[in-house]
Amino acid sequence: MAPLPPKRIIPISQPALGEEEWQALREPVLSGWVTQGPKVAEFERQFSKHHRVKHAIAVSSCTTGLHLALLAMGVGQGDEVIVPAFTWIATANVVLHCGATPVFVDIDRLTYNLSLAELVQKVTARTKVVVPVHLFGRCSDIAAIRALLPADVKILEDAACAVGASLRGIPAGSQGDAAAFSFHPRKVITTGEGGMVTTNNDELAEIMNQLRNHGATVSEEQRHIGPKPYILPDFNLPGYNYRMTDLQGAIGVVQLSKLEALIKERSKWANWYKQRLSCIEWLRCPEESIDGNDSWQAYVVYVYPDKSPMTRNDIMEILLGKGIATRPGTHAVHMTNFYRRKFNIRPEQFPNAMDCDGQTIAIPLHNNMSAQDYEYVVEQLKSI
Ligand SMILES: *Cc1c(COP(=O)(O)O)cnc(C)c1O
């Protein structure tokens, strides 16, 4: 029997890590300072500078960052927090972890971000925070959202996908009352797990800073270099351990220095995909924002149910058989088991989220793909 031709395997995503990140680990490993310390502090300084925001506080994930931000904003029992119905499930889970109620709002099918027209209808006297998500690295319009909300309602940007993205020249994470970013390997830059909360508000920054470290008034590093290192700090709040390690901080500094180049390359291939895929009539490419810089965390296409030769899942199955990994865009959170049952929600209550849940496909776009890989993805999509 003739040997099978070598099969091309294109993962949905692959982190852009290399020799520099490997070398960056030497210092914390050899010094022995591996928990939150000088490398995390440097990462925070660089991150806040890059996103033009006063405070950046590194945490163990975007999820823990969102949790801290809601707690710092005083969210608790009886409060409502508005979240889009189409997002990663963590956006809604953290609201429940504060004892508050997530209120879903439908999305705009073209941008995949929350619909402003739907948002205004969901605001009540109990609304404490709105959490716009910059889904797949395209910024929600924070200024427009702010203009629609009563003055006492706070905005927490779920900027998990939006490291380095901007709208009208304003960086993601710099306009809301606070924002949370993710460094999970599916995002543009990674520290393994990891996240960053940002804010321009000194008071929120101080509370989040303490809450991530057991509620301690000073960090271990400050204590170590301070005048009386043997004195334990005092604790003002019942906090958590949501700290980032210095191993992650060291990698984060290197990753951040590459961010602009990584986004530039993604953006180039996003444009290329759009040109090459526009002739497929059953598929719609994502709209890039006209007045923004998207980070292209994921390239999510929409399959028209009435024009497609087969179902979305069948298309994904065929692509997998050709070695091309894909994923659904993300979840309609209100349709997942827990939320559907707990809040007794019907899928059709959020028709756009339901539709995107069933009809979107994230196709490979990351910084470890060759021109041949991209060409191969396009050829296989065209042959369907
Ligand atoms: C990835 C993601 C998260 C969670 O980030 P982690 O760092 O894995 O906790 C939250 N919200 C959105 C929109 C995401 O894409």
How would you sum up this structure in a few lines?
By secondary structure, the chain is an alpha/beta fold.
Task: List descriptors.
binds pyridoxal-5'-phosphate; Aspartate Aminotransferase, domain 1; 384 residues; single chain; 14 helices; three-stranded antiparallel β-sheet; alpha/beta; globular; Aspartate Aminotransferase, domain 2; 2 domains
Could you walk me through the main structural features you see in this protein, from its secondary elements to its overall organization?
The chain has 384 residues and is of the alpha/beta class. Helix content is 38%, strand content 13%. The chain is built from 14 helices and 13 strands. It has helices at residues 19-24, 26-31, 38-50, 62-72, 90-97, 116-122, 142-148, 202-211, 220-225, 246-277, 312-321, 337-343, 351-359, 371-382, and strands at 55-59, 80-84, 101-105, 127-130, 154-158, 166-167, 170-171, 178-182, 195-199, 283-284, 292-293, 299-303, 360-363. It has a seven-stranded mixed β-sheet with strand order 1-9-8-5-4-2-3, with helices on both faces. Strand 2 (80-84), helix 5 (90-97) and strand 3 form a beta-alpha-beta unit. The mean pLDDT is 96. The structure holds pyridoxal-5'-phosphate. The site of pyridoxal-5'-phosphate has 14 residues, from helix 4 and helix 5.
**What fraction strand?**
5-15%
CATH-defined architecture of the largest domain = 3-Layer(aba) Sandwich
Helix proportion: 25-40%
Reported by name, the CATH topology of the largest domain is Aspartate Aminotransferase, domain 2
